[in-house]
Amino acid sequence: MKIPAMKRRDFLKVGGGVVAGAAVGITGTNVGNNLGAGGELAAVASSRGLTGAEARAALTSVVPPGKYDPFFMFASGGHSGQISIIGIPSMRLLKIIPVFSRDSFSGYGFGTDVDGVIPRGSDPTKSNLLSWGDTHHPALSETEGRYDGRWLYVNDRANGRIGMVDLADYKTKQIYDIPNIGSAHGGVFVTPDSEYAHVSSITPRPITDNGYAPLESYADLYRGFSSWCAIDQTTGHLVPEKSFQIELPPYNQDLADMGKLASAGYGFLNSFNAELSVGMSHKNPPIEIGAAKNKYDYLHVIDWKKAEKVVAAGKIIMRNGIRVIPLQVAISEGILHFIPEPKNPHGVEVSPDGNYIVIAGKLDPAVTVYSITMIKKAIEDKNFEGTDRYGVPIIPITAVTAAHVELGAGPLHTQYDGKGNAYTSLFIDSAIIKWTLGPDAGVTEKPFTVLEKIPVHYNIGHLAIPGGDTVAPVGTYMVALNKWSLDQVQKLGPQHPVNLELFDINHTPPRVLSSLPLGGSEPHYAQIISVDRLNPLTVYPPGTSPETMAKSEFATASGQERIVRADGFVDVYATVMRSHFTPEQIPVTVGEKLRIHLTNIETAENATHTFAVPNHNLQATLDPGETVSVEFTADRVGSFAFYCAQFCSAMHMEMYGWLLVAPAGA
Ligand code: K7E
Ligand code: CUA
């Protein structure tokens, strides 16, 4: 809204005249001391053409240079295959962690992991070497249902994998290419004590030996899999031998969430396409029509504690290297139940106390709220209305529904503020609805009531509140992760950034504070953690291999640099520090195989160097204390000036050396 200059001035001086008001209110404090009268702030706002609300928003969210954000948002990057770390409330992009995609800045996947994370993260029986992914749902590790700041997991929606990031150094340590699933969307979500990271397939796969089956046999031969990937409690790595899957009907299992507190021990998976639509042909409609015919799909209720026991009892089959509970066993052992849910839902999100399971309608302008007490009772009483075509018992929707709350068009995802309120994103309406939970969450006055409609710009997907999916949300800030930025940013060519919007939800009604148009990635889900839960390294102990977090056998101290020829390899033990490589000359003959082991012997925080070799597609980044080994064949004759690509010191330009590849017999 444009306010004429005079009017804006008046606005600033009175009532909503937050700028003047705020400054006057804190006269004598820093603001007063540094700026004198509050009128000066008003003048700044006025000269910049800011409304009172905009100026107030700026003051509410600014984090001045040298001061820190109290929260970090870990946001997925979609088809960039990365994770972004964004400071809250400053909305500054602080770091990008490559997970599934190569990244020359961090040296991830550029000659530095010959036998490393990316190659080992592609199952050769399933895929070619994959060097990208589609990150959707980051999951911070939890202890007693709260983020504990140890590890982060994220799914690769495209290729059915999970990446694991160690929050000791914010680096990706493992990619697990999960057997039997082609794509992965139902997660990652961790159990409340990080026993498992869960993901399920969104599109089913044939269970034939070669992974192929004609679509005529879709109902019989295609299956989904709910994957429970066991987490090593020391390293955070996923352990395939301790993991298991549950075979599911070939519906499209979409989002999932973990039960907690009242619903601990359960997992909940939404699904769509109970119709088993396989796509357009001479007799079939397109999937978007075929998969939306029925009024209901099925919420999958999984008793994972029971599943653990069934696995321990050996009632499993091995399928492609993982233990699988067959569908009929899951049914007979009471591990899997269905509840009808309004057609083609998207998000399923469990309230902080675990009492309510909230299903976002997507094609239903409402959320359906199930009660875990009623679900447990229905299962106990065997209150079923028959089974689906595979024999999975169906609990009547009326037996478990606590509320059906009308919100608006296109509900997708829900977060909680820990004060009894839920916030649900509306994709089609471009809005967030704040509404109240019910008596089981302690809300009695106005249960299941819409309180606010908060506009966003535009087409919101997920939203994030600090701890908003844990047992203890901190209802301070809320970020809307919007898909379209349209008129919010100046023209940048035909591809637009996505647009994240920050809200102050301490205030009633919630107020917009700022936005972060984000190029280069499309966040789906994001989690916001209080920074005091994180405890990262600042420098590595000397000679650390980030892959093992232990001292590398190739760590080299100052004075120990050497070139050794043995077993058909030229091993170069090199050190790096401001501002030189040792050795600075690496003479070899064409065809020789090189292993260059680089140790950054700096102990100073922030003293990062790199090792970039021209024309060899090789770029290693070395943080202080880090040891990295690169392996390549000197397959072309030439003089190549390797150098440090990070401007590390006044003599950074001098920080180079020579890889001399002589012709044979020279
Ligand atoms: Cu809604 Cu993959 Cu969580 Cu995107 S998903 S928005
Ligand atoms: Cu080291 Cu530039």
UniProtKB/TrEMBL annotation:
InterPro entries named in the record: CcO_II-like_C (IPR002429), Cupredoxin (IPR008972), EfeO_Cupredoxin (IPR028096), N2O_reductase_N (IPR011045), Nitrous_oxide_Rdtase_Sec-dep (IPR026468), Nos_propeller (IPR041114), NosZ/Cyto_c_oxidase_sub2 (IPR051403), TAT_signal (IPR006311)
Pfam families: Cupredoxin_1, nos_propeller
UniProt entry tagged with the keyword Calcium: yes
Record bears the keyword Metal-binding: yes
Example GO molecular function: nitrous-oxide reductase activity
PANTHER family: CYTOCHROME C OXIDASE SUBUNIT II, NITROUS-OXIDE REDUCTASE
Protein name: Nitrous-oxide reductase
Species of origin: Cryobacterium sandaracinum
Lineage of the organism: Bacteria, Bacillati, Actinomycetota, Actinomycetes, Micrococcales
